[in-house]
Design brief:
363 residues, mainly beta, Immunoglobulin-like, 2 domains, six-stranded mixed β-sheet, 21 strands, binds copper (II) ion, copper ion binding
Length: 363
């Protein structure tokens, strides 16, 4: 009995000293955590205004399209925010048809009524009305936004889509190596509906134009690099077709699917991307030359009934230059920001881009 008592006393004494040292450590840790809170979890509040406007854009040559363009541009403005930010977007519909915006990829935890689906989460925004979306930017990654009304027409051939890039709080090592960042939104168009807003997008439609950021080759733009660059291509399937994006002369490392990092990047030379999907592909620029990037669905490299066109571009290395007699773009006027590469370097926020601005259509 005495023995037991002694053991218990010793045990209790040890427990008390353990407890107080534990409590001391605990308090110190709490103080450290409290001191770090303003640095780590300061969610910015960001508020943006988007209008939806009847706008005429040109895909290539004389091939124009009546679109319902966000802030009068196709693709829509870049929305670039930090993971965890509180985002508010006021959307004003200046067209004659109802619309919504779905924030594709956002989890909308606790904000399901900002998911932008007519008949499920809200009444569609009627002409002349404004609707406010509020959500937390999560998860991080390459996301996008698009109308969710009559998607077969509004998304497929009225240009109602744009990039939503949510920067991760803790970027992966592979992301930190990137020197140049590009967004490529892929879509498909049916020219017979080009100037019939409110119609189109039905089974049996004949798709005959294919675009990157709403332009068909040769009116797309090159990707200009130098040896040693590491480029990130953020591919976004914004249309109705599957695309097989083939890059010549380089190893494509698929590092993210729908914004989520893969445990190990998948290496390849062709990336198959379907409607709604995103793939972030990282490539080391280690092979100076002029190299094609194109859709390997061969009919997607035509404009109407004529090759070459559609989803095609090139990687141009500074080291080899463009002054070669055979090179299709040797005299081309270079337009920076065609892949949002300039906008992505700006401070976080929403960035309109003159490159994508169309002509207003007066009713
Ligand atoms: Cu719409």
């Amino acid at each position: 009995m005495y023995l037991i008592y002694t053991k218990r006393t010793v045990f209790m004494k040890n427990s008390i000293s353990l407890f107080s040292s534990y409590r001391f450590t605990h308090i110190i840790l709490m103080l450290i955590v409290l001191a770090l809170i303003p640095l780590t979890s300061q969610a910015e509040k960001r508020e943006f205004d988007l209008s939806i406007e009847d706008t005429r854009i040109v895909l290539v040559g004389k091939r124009d399209f009546h679109t319902f363009a966000f802030n009068g541009q196709v693709p829509a403005p870049l929305i670039h925010v930090m993971e965890g930010d509180d985002v508010t977007v006021n959307v004003t519909n200046m067209t004659t048809l109802p619309h919504t915006i779905h924030w594709h990829g956002m989890l909308q935890r606790g904000t399901w009524q900002s998911d932008g689906v007519p008949h499920a989460t809200q009444h569609a925004i009627e002409p002349g009305d404004t609707f406010t979306y509020k959500f937390k930017a999560e998860p991080a990654g390459t996301m996008w936004y698009h109308c969710h009304v009559n998607v077969n027409e509004h998304v497929t051939m009225r240009g109602m889509w744009g990039p939503l890039i949510v920067e991760p709080k803790n970027p992966l090592p592979i992301e930190k190596t990137v020197t140049k960042d590009y967004i490529l939104m892929l879509s498909d168009w049916v020219s017979s509906w080009a100037n019939k807003p409110g119609e189109g997008g039905i089974p049996g439609d004949v798709f005959d134009y294919y675009t990157i950021n709403a332009k068909s080759f040769p009116e797309t733009q090159p990707i200009r690099v130098k040896k040693g660059d590491v480029i990130r291509l953020r591919l976004i399937g914004a249309g109705d077709h599957v695309h097989a994006i083939h890059t010549h002369g380089h190893i494509s490392q698929i590092a993210f699917k729908d914004g989520f990092p893969l445990d190990k990047p998948i290496k390849g030379d062709t990336v198959l991307i379907g409607p709604g999907e995103r793939y972030d592909v990282i490539l080391n620029m280690d092979n100076p030359g002029l190299w094609m990037i194109h859709d390997h669905v061969d009919t997607h490299t035509t404009n109407g009934d004529k090759p070459d066109g559609g989803i095609m571009t090139t990687i141009e290395y500074e080291e080899v230059g463009i002054d070669h007699p055979f090179y299709v773009w040797k005299d081309k006027k270079f337009v920076p920001d065609f892949y949002y590469e300039e906008s992505l370097k700006k401070d976080l926020g929403m960035h309109n881009s003159k490159v994508f601005k169309g002509e207003p259509i007066e009713e």
